[in-house]
Amino acid sequence: MSAESPVRLSVVIPVYNEELNLPTLFARLYPVLDSIGRRYEVIFTNDGSQDRSIELLKAQHAARPDVTRVIDFNANYGQHMAIMAAFERVRGDVIVTLDADLQNPPEEIPKLLEQIAAGHDYVGGYRLNRRDSFFRKYASRLINFVRERTTSIEMRDQGCMLRAYTRPIIDAIVRSGAINTFIPALAYSFAGNPAEVGVKHEERHAGVSNYSFFSLIRLNFDLITGFSLAPLQYFTMFSGLCSVGSFLLVLYLAYRRIFLGAEAEGIFTLFGILFFLLSVAMVGIGLIGEYVGRTYQVVRARQRYFVKEILETKE
Ligand code: UDP
Ligand code: MG
User: Fold this and answer.
1) Relative to the CA of 14, which ligand 1 atom is closest?
2) Which of 91, 104, 188, 203 could bridge 131 with an S-S bond, Cβ 3.0-4.6 Å?
3) Cα(228)–Cα(236) distance, rounded to whole angstroms?
4) What is the value of pTM for the model shown?
5) How many domains are contained in the chain?
6) How far is the CA of 16 from the centre of ligand 1 (A)?
7) Is the Cβ atom of 15 under 6 angstroms away from ligand 1?
């Protein structure tokens, strides 16, 4: 393909301490992309790796400068920011995201492209025979369930990063300037005609998952708070119910106080008043939370990451 033809396909790969996987990834990914027969580019974001990942990426850029671009972050900003930085620079009109650990085989990329060719603007992969720990699998199911109830995002497998998007969706994601975001969900909210395909899943080729238990919780908290105010609203509703309940209790205690006289030396009356005031305070906190939440939604734009260096061939 001539260097003048426009880039048709961009593959975006976040890299954090993947020195053991990168050589195999290069060896498997490039032949697949070469065989598709479209002009492509691969954008790697080195997300502040502490191992030799950046040296390996630089070597790969030297070996295939025409199709390889490397963004080097100064520190670790997380997988989604790494993808975001690449999205801001993509040249292709179809964009594919892929993990560096080979859990989603690069050989599945053509499958996604078929769906794009069939007219879909967003193609999500879902993992067939998922190869993760028992705990991860069940945690995922629970999270999928909560997400479906609290946001209007319907995704079979939110954790699968092998996905393809058309350029307008990526442009919308970039314009949204989202921070702490969950890219597949954000993309879904912009998609007009999404599709899902089953993709193979393998065990991590080498190394260990970069997600600890706590970072998974944080990611999913981001997902829910980033896409809905449901937690706040549930809280407010719950406090509202408590208020109604304790108001009824106060009425009942007042009735007994007046018609039956003081019981347990007025302790019940005191409790009644206390519960009522407490639930009023809870509703108040919930309401403040609502406003803080809404404010938070509009003020999130701030410097999200810092790029140390970019290796690429200028167009
Ligand atoms: N990753 C990253 N920054 C991070 C954590 C992960 O760029 O802070 C990359 C990592 O190199 C891999 C992808 O994101 O390409 C998925 O990470 P991992 O395999 O650890 O997640 P899991 O498959 O366990 O969900
Ligand atoms: Mg992985």
Assistant:
1) 7
2) 203
3) 14
4) 0.78
5) 2
6) 6
7) yes
